[in-house]
Amino acid sequence: MSFAAQTKSELCRIAGQEQCCQKAECYGMWLSSKHFSHQAVCLTTEHLEAAHRVADLTAQTAHVIVDVSVRLTRQTTHSSQVTVAGEDQRETFLRFFGHTGCEPNLRLNYANLENPCCEAAFLRGIFLSCGSVTNPEREYHLELVAPFWNLAKDIQLLLSRVEGLDLQPAVTNRKGTFLVYLKGSEQIADLLTLIGAPQSSMQLMQVKMLKELRNDVNRKMNFETANLDKTAAASARQLIAIETIMNHMGLSQLPEDLQEIARLRYENPEMSLRELGENLAIPLSRSGVNHRLRRLMELAAELVPQKDSQKG
Ligand SMILES: [Zn+2]
Q1: If we measure between CA atoms, which residue out of 287, 279, 294, 308 comes closest to residue 238?
Q2: Cα 28 to chain centroid, rounded
Q3: CB-based contacts of 130: which residues, under 8 Å, 6+ apart?
Q4: Are 177 and 143 in contact (CB under 8 A)?
Q5: What is the DSSP letter of 143?
Q6: Which one-letter DSSP state was computed for residue 41?
Q7: What does the pLDDT look like over 241-274, one tens digit per residue?
Q8: Architecture of the structural domain at 10-196
Q9: Burial class of 249 by CB neighbour count within 10 A (0 to 12, 13 to 18, 19+)
Q10: Domain coordinates of the chain in residue numbers?
Q11: Which residue in 2, 81, 98, 294 has its CB near the most CB atoms, within 10 A?
């Protein structure tokens, strides 16, 4: 089951809410459905529980009986159609929510959100009917598809005004429908908790924490590997320089301080600069060791051209 479907199932298990909230949730589901006019009142959903829920809510609040039909759309997907049949029934139904069914531009009728508690219920209805949320393993994205621009703006306004939450919904146009969407794990988790899906909300935050932990570990490992590579590469260059000196003039020709560090490095290619410094007869700082090794490299560089010119 997808994360969105699982979230909707969680929402569909909510029971025992106040009459005012039942009406608000029912209104949210129908208002964002494909058809909400006197020609047709019809809601299509791939979520069977949501279809049954809107049927129950409609019967309980508006006392209107709906038809629910289920058909197989793709091999495994069922699509449910919930319909209010008959012109008289539709008129009664639309009037119950304060609509004429003739509005050219459907807007949110705030009269259906009677009490402060109804806001969350209304948003739950909207999400159940036209919402979806991406699997948090992939990305953080929650969207509500509204059939009208002004309705999308009404939903956006309602979301941005939810008390105590800092929701920043955006609206965009996609192929003739209008999307109200939220990005960001905190915003999405907050909204899911608000509309009554705390389990899904918690799951989202857990996935986020795990993702961050994995990223942290990866970043640290990359950092350490890069550092190791750098140290190993530097050590290899120093070894080449020391070998060059050994072959061309012998280490015994070097001043004593350089002889000592050359031998120590040659025998301990894996040691860090700090470790090399600690193992000298008279311990030396990291930068002191670095300075001596640089002198060895410069010396070796001077030796190589001599060899070339002798050859030539
Ligand atoms: Zn209420």
Answers
A1: 294
A2: 26
A3: 32, 33, 144, 145, 146
A4: no
A5: E
A6: E
A7: 999 899 889 999 999 999 999 999 999 988 999 9
A8: Roll (3.10)
A9: middle
A10: 10-196, 227-311
A11: 81
| Cα of 257 from ligand 1 centre, angstroms | 85
Tokens at 272, concatenated: 């860090």
Whose CA is closest to 295, among 272, 269, 268, 262? 262
* Distance of CA 18 from the midpoint of ligand 1 (Å): 6
Average pLDDT over residues 280-303: 93
Distance (angstroms) between ligand 1 centre and the Cα of 68 equals: 26
Q: How far is the CA of 14 from the centre of ligand 1 (A)?
A: 14
Separation of 8 CA from ligand 1 center, angstroms? 20
Extract the runs of DSSP E, i.e. beta strands, from the chain: 35-36, 41-45, 67-72, 78-84, 131-133, 141-146, 170-174, 177-183
Per-residue pLDDT averaged across 21-30, rounded? 97
pLDDT digits (tens, 9 = 90+) for 63-100: 999 999 988 777 677 899 999 999 999 999 999 999 99
* pLDDT level of residue 34 (50, 70, 90 thresholds): confident
249, containing H or E segment: none
Instruction: Give the integer Cα–Cα distance in Å for 288 and 173.
Output: 65
Quick one: pLDDT at residue 305? 65
CA of 117 to the centre of ligand 1 (A): 4
157 CA → ligand 1 middle, Å: 19
pLDDT tens figures, 141-188: 999 999 899 999 999 999 999 999 999 999 999 888 899 999 999 999
Average pLDDT, the chain: 91
- Taking the C-alpha atoms of residue 267 and residue 271, their distance in angstroms, rounded to an integer, is 9
Structure tokens at 48: 């069977």
